[in-house]
Each structure stands twice: as C-alpha cells, then as structure tokens.
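Extended Data, panel c. Modelled sequence:
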Amino acid sequence: MFSATLLAWAVLGSGDLPSGPNPGDKLQEFKAHGIFGDNEGKEFEVLKSTKDRPILLIFVHKITRPALQLLKPVDEYAAKEEKLAAHVIWLGEKEKAEEFLKRAKNSLNLQLPVSIAADKEGPPAYGLNDQVTMTIVLAKDKKVTNNFAFVDPNATVAPKVIAAVAKLLGKEPPKAKEEEKKRNADGKSPELQKLMRRMIQKDNDEATVDRVVQAMKKWAGDDDAKRKELREHAQLVVRLGYGNEIAQAALKKLAESKD
C-alpha cells in the first residue's frame, strides 16, 4: 500500500512526500534526549519545554550537505526569535546519533537546541516518513499550522520555511531571504555556482584555489551586483564550512572584500 503511494507521488512529479502531522492536527507530547542546549544530558518532554510558545520542530531523518543548506539559515533565523520554541530533533539509534552529533558539533554549528527522539523513528503519533530527509512542523497553541516534508532539501526552500516561521510569529519575512530565493529560483549566476563547486573540492591545493579565486574575480569584474553576490556566496560557504583549509582561508578573504 505504501509503495503504491510512493509511486503515485513519483508520477505526479513531486519532489516531496507526506510526513508528519497535518495542519489542524493537535501535537502529541513526546520525549527526547537532550544533546545540546538547556536539556543537555537529560530525557525531557519536548512540548512541555515549549511553555506554550509558538513551536518549530525540525526532524532530521538524515543529514546531507544540501539538507544542511536548508537547516543552517532556518536555524540562524529561529535562534534569534525569543518568542519561538524551536528544537532540532535527530532520528535514529541514540548511541550512533549522539556519537555523530558530538563529533560534528563544530561543523554543524547549530544554535538551536538539539536532541535525539526517544523513539528512533520519531514520535509514533506523528507519522514521520523515513523516505524523506527532513520534516519541519510549525504549531501554535500546540495545533499544527504548517508542515514541510523534504526528500531533497536545499537552500532554495529555506526562504519558504522562514517565511512560514515569520508568519507564525506575526512578522514580515526578511526581505534579504526573499531576494536570495529569487536568485536561486531563476538560476542566476550558474557560472559562480560552478566556480564555487570547484572551490570546495577537498583535494584542492593552493595553486588550484588561487586559479578559482581569480576566475571568480574576473566573473564579478566591476559589476557591483556580481561583487555583492560573490561576497554573500562566499560568506554562506564559509558558514557551512565547505572546502579544505586553503579554500576556507581564500573564501574568508572574498567574504570580507569590499573591492
């Protein structure tokens, strides 16, 4: 039955699958093991910890580089909102997940509290789909307002999630994120994206990195808009920690450059 559902979604051409409670559903309490944040080292009831604030739950079924590109800007935005109760909840075997999270703490560099669901597949009442990469649930008064389930998440969908969080809080979505969404959606600057992929190759040496930097500067030229885009793209890749040490050092210079 479930395979038929997957087939139907594939035929429809959707990149995403249903996962988690639907808008209008009442959230059910569940437990998690705190890894980073106020509940570190403790098992706690997640909904109780929200203290009746608007809720953002990010269930991570598995982590990939594109998924991190979605998670990072959402994490950055949500962490600044004191009226929001936000949690990043890892799924899977507790021991393996905890080992990974502590090993990858610096590279993930998440600001929100991170925990591991007590049930390795997530709260049974939530109906989380193990075929997706990430399920994001927003709720107010513990009633679901938005549900996002991504099979192949990336930075292009982050503005959509952030806009929903802003709406949940009664705020306007940040304009800078909308502009970033447009740039990604219309495929602008494919040459810069191609150069950046070359930049973050793990086996790059100093000479290779220097050639890519010069190509990026040549691409930007005297165009203020392109220079701004290059700085912002470099800033993003630095935050994500992609590339080796040589590439990261060069990207930091590009990110700080005003020329």
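The first strand starts at residue 31 and ends at 36. This feature is highlighted in the accompanying rendering.
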